[in-house]
């Protein structure tokens, strides 16, 4: 049985991913994005390695610097991040007008009706992924399913940088295994994506799930080198 056509794009740690792509010194070390000069500075984004150290967005900067001695801090560059999100948006619109923003670095893309142009949804997703990587240096987590909720949950479980296409049976298995906090935090009922420019739904809340047999089918965790970030 094939997967659905609802693709969720989750550019995990978009700010940190861009900073790491621009500064090779940051690769292989934990760092955060924050306004270091502010008296009550909080963390705006964390790198993957910083996340593994237990650091999270919204934590006081003074606290995380105490928790991880020698932690690198980079100031935010809002224009650069907005440019990256706009590039993601424009690439998605080349595949279909049924695209919705669902928060910073998050998109829902409905690939129904695109088979003649781009092949099966799985193939279209791989093409989209290659475009995003080559043009921005970002490697978002991607998930295909028949519902926005299942796709959103999958990108939270299989991040960062993974891609999975779920059958209907796998959707049920994955969602059942997740804690209620992931499924209901900030939950709103999801419709299918609407054409660009229409009202947009927000996705389900944040969180990560435990180990699942679906990990065996997870693609794209090879850690391949990323090209430098660019907004050409």
What does this protein structure show overall?
With 232 residues, this protein is of the alpha/beta class. The chain has two domains: 6-12 and 78-217, Alpha-Beta Plaits; 16-74, MutS, DNA mismatch repair protein, domain I, CATH 3.40.1170. The chain has helices at residues 14-22, 48-52, 61-67, 78-93, 115-118, 121-136, 148-157, 168-176, 180-184; strands at residues 6-10, 31-34, 43-46, 72-74, 99-101, 106-110, 141-145, 163-165. The chain has a five-stranded mixed sheet with strand order 5-6-1-7-8, with helices on both faces. The protein has a three-stranded mixed sheet with strand order 3-2-4. Helix 7 packs across helix 8. The longest helix is centred in the middle third of the chain and has 16 residues, at 78-93. It is globular. The chain starts with 5 loop residues before the first strand and ends in a 48-residue tail after the last helix.
Under CATH, the topology of the largest domain can be stated as Alpha-Beta Plaits
The CATH level-2 architecture of the largest domain is identified as 2-Layer Sandwich
The total of helices stands at 9
Largest sheet: 5 strands, mixed
Major sheet: order of its strands? Answer: 5-6-1-7-8
Kindly state the number of beta strands: 8
Tertiary shape: globular
At the fourth level of CATH, the homologous superfamily of the largest domain is: Reverse transcriptase/Diguanylate cyclase domain
Helix content: 25-40%
Spans of at least 5 consecutive residues with low confidence: 185-191, 196-212, 218-232
| Termini separation | 40 Å
The oligomeric status of these chains comes to single chain
Instruction: Report strand %.
Output: 5-15%
Structural class: alpha/beta
């Amino acid at each position: 049985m094939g997967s659905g056509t609802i693709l969720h794009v989750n550019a995990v740690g978009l700010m940190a991913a861009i900073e790491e792509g621009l500064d090779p010194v940051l690769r292989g070390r934990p760092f955060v994005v924050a306004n270091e000069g502010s008296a009550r500075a909080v963390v705006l984004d964390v790198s993957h390695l910083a996340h593994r150290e237990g650091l999270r967005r919204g934590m006081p900067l003074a606290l995380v610097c105490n928790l991880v001695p020698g932690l690198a801090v980079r100031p935010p560059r809002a224009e650069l991040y907005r440019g990256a999100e706009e590039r993601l948006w424009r690439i998605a619109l080349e595949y279909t007008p049924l695209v919705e923003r669902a928060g910073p670095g998050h998109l829902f893309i409905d690939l129904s009706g695109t088979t003649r142009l781009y092949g099966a949804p799985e193939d279209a997703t791989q093409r989209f992924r290659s475009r995003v990587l080559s043009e921005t240096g970002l490697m978002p987590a991607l998930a295909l399913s028949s519902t926005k909720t299942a796709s959103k949950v999958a990108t939270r479980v299989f991040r960062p940088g993974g891609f999975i296409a779920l059958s209907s049976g796998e959707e049920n298995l994955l969602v059942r295994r997740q804690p209620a906090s992931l499924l209901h935090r900030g939950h709103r009922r999801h419709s299918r994506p609407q054409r660009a420019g229409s009202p947009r739904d927000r996705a389900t809340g944040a969180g990560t799930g435990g180990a699942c047999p679906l990990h065996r089918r997870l693609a794209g965790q090879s850690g391949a080198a990323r090209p430098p970030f660019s907004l050409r």
